[in-house]
Design a protein that fits this description.
mainly alpha; Butyryl-CoA Dehydrogenase, subunit A, domain 3; Neurolysin, domain 3; three-stranded mixed β-sheet; binds zinc ion; EC 3.4.24.-
């Protein structure tokens, strides 16, 4: 296998994304950026005038959308050109320019939302009845209406805006400490060489098949966190306090309610997730037991959680094979879906290979009016195969949404985004299990699924539960000391992993390592998205056409409806325990399958 990484210009054009379909050349981009800069001032003319008449309001909002749509394409082209080769200084400058235009636009258009919010709701209603083109904005106005009761006086809003940066300090201090100042010690790897632990290396060290290596890495990392536990407790506590300050200032009942209201998710969905996952913890305990058996250890420790239990499987997948597998896997979604997706491969949506300077990882991106591009750094393995299916799920979602919705509703929230992508993974998993013949490979895929499920549904829900606990504690007048945080986090681990796991005391300090606790009630959406996707794929495979039609309609909805409503129409009601129950059923069936294969 060649390990040489090529230069960008050496990559065959057909294996790169077709950014020329946005702007034919960099010159054309430059012209477009210049024109945009001139046009942006056109938005100024509507300041303080939105409530004058229906027509003025319509013209202002249309102008805002027109500029925003153009800006989306300008920004997308620049940031993707930059990502394909971050060492290219011309494209770095292009991206900087694009950021400049975004901030210019935001400043110029910043008066629109506050002015809309300040408008008398009765006037707004009258305008909508008067002017039929304003009806398009009805859902947007409805969203604003829900926000209105949490908007304060002008003076108070100004104070909150000014406090924003200071309230961000805890999170910034955490980032500086965790990413820059904190240094982990060196340990000996499998070959006996000294390696210094970094955040990036920690995960692969934990995956080591050499138990001494993963134990040493685990102990070294958490000893480091323990050393700084009081500072970490102060930053986390500061973050929680600022979440609560913001929520209380805006008259929300809790920090969680405030955070979830941004995407209109009722807090009941969050509670439902936690309680349903807790009801099914015996399944996670069964998985822990299986892991202990497969590894053949007397005691299973927290540092034994990431090493593969299915070893030495030669499972290479080339990009061409992956492409065929993904196309085959999504067949249950119907001819049109398959055709569009196949066309995506032909139309150069994907930037396939790794090259010098290319941004790492994978994503699906693009803007309204562009192709839904995908960045990959292709390696011939199962992980990349599933990632490709995942990113195509996002891109197909964008494709359906943008072809159906006007620009205003041509995007979607994270709560529904992960449903579309994970659903494709789910179908791929099903397809692989149906078609693979070799036992070893089947075991590998089954385990791949269990690992993904554990990491997404169980682990993220545990994070969500911890986040809720620490906020509630402070809201109830309590304080978050290092000892308390560690104790709470440790006990959660005991509860989640069950009787077959030796919960080492070090894991108690993991709360200090997880940046997600600074994301303000964000991570539960990974678990809900995964569960919804599992439930929907089950319906699609069992029910056929009616379930497919509901799902395709869901893909077309964009942001023209509330996420919970959209999912309800697609067939999953996230306010009930049903979707998580169905996902758990899938986990259980997979456990049955893998246990049976192992015992064969
Ligand atoms: Zn995703």
């Amino acid at each position: 296998m060649s390990t040489k990484i090529v230069e960008r210009h050496e990559v065959p054009v057909n294996d790169t994304w077709d950014l020329e379909s946005i702007f034919k050349s960099d010159t054309e981009w430059e012209q477009s950026a210049t024109t945009f800069k001139e046009q942006v001032s056109e938005i100024d003319g509507f300041r303080n005038k939105l409530s004058e008449s229906a027509e003025t309001l319509y013209l202002a909002l249309s102008k805002q959308l027109e500029l925003q749509e153009k800006l989306g394409q300008i920004f997308t082209y620049a940031h993707m050109r930059h990502d394909q080769d971050t060492g290219n200084s011309y494209y770095s400058a292009l991206q900087d320019k694009a950021y400049g235009l975004v901030s210019l636009f935001e400043q110029r258009a910043s008066y629109i939302t506050p002015e809309l919010l300040a408008m008398d709701p009765a006037t707004l209603d009258r305008f909508v009845t008067e002017h039929k083109d304003l009806q398009l904005f009805s859902h947007l106005f409805d969203q604003l209406r829900k926000q209105r009761e949490h908007i304060l006086s002008e003076r108070e809003e100004e104070l909150l805006a000014r406090a924003k940066e200071a309230l961000n300090t805890s999170s910034q201090a955490y980032g500086a400490l965790n990413n820059a100042d904190l240094a982990f010690p060196s340990i000996k790897n499998e070959k006996g060489e000294e390696v210094q632990i970094t955040h990036g290396r920690f995960v692969s060290l934990l995956q080591s098949e050499d138990r001494d290596v993963r134990k040493a890495a685990f102990e070294a990392v958490y000893a480091t966190y323990e050393q700084y536990k009081n500072t970490f407790a102060a930053t986390l506590s500061g973050q929680v306090k600022s979440d609560i300050f913001n929520a209380q200032s805006r008259n929300y009942a809790s920090a969680r309610e405030a955070a979830l209201s941004e995407t209109h998710i009722p807090v009941g969905v969050y509670d439902q997730l936690i309680s349903t996952v807790e009801d099914h913890l015996p399944l996670l305990h069964r998985y822990v037991k299986l892991r202990k058996k497969c590894l053949g250890v007397d005691e299973l420790h927290m540092y034994d959680l990431y090493t593969p239990i299915i070893k030495d499987v030669e499972f290479q997948v080339s990009y061409e094979e992956a492409k065929q597998k993904v196309i085959e896997a999504v067949k249950p979604l119907g001819e049109e879906y398959v055709e569009r997706l196949t066309q995506g491969f032909e139309d150069r949506w994907v930037d396939i290979h790794e090259n010098k300077g290319k941004r790492s990882g994978a994503y699906s991106s693009g803007a309204y009016g562009t192709k839904p591009f995908i960045l990959m750094n292709w390696q011939d393995d199962v992980d990349n195969l599933f990632t490709l299916a995942h990113e195509f799920g996002h891109s197909m979602h964008s494709d359906y949404t943008r072809r159906t919705q006007p620009y205003l509703y041509g995007d979607y929230t994270i709560f529904v985004a992960e449903v579309a992508s994970t659903l494709n993974e789910s179908l791929l998993h099903h397809h692989m299990i149906q078609t693979l013949e070799e036992k070893e490979k089947k075991l590998y895929i089954l385990n791949y699924f269990l690992e993904g499920f554990r990491g997404t549904v169980f682990r993220q829900t545990m994070f969500a539960e911890f986040e809720q606990m620490i906020h509630e504690k402070v809201e109830g007048g309590g304080a978050l000391t290092a000892e308390e945080l560690t104790q709470m986090y440790y006990e959660l681990n005991v509860k989640y992993y069950g009787p077959d796991m030796v919960v080492d005391k070090e894991i108690g300090f993991e709360w200090a390592r997880i940046p997600h606790f600074y994301y303000n009630f964000y991570v539960f959406q990974y678990a809900t998205g995964y569960s919804a996707a599992a439930a929907l794929s089950k319906q699609i495979l069992e029910e056929g056409q009616p379930a497919v039609d509901r799902f395709i309609d869901f893909l077309k909805t964009g942001s023209s409806d509330y996420p919970i409503q959209m999912l309800k129409k697609a067939g999953v009601d996230m306010t009930t325990s049903e979707p998580v129950e169905q996902a758990m059923k899938l986990f259980e069936t997979t456990l049955d399958q893998i246990e049976q294969l192992i015992n064969d």
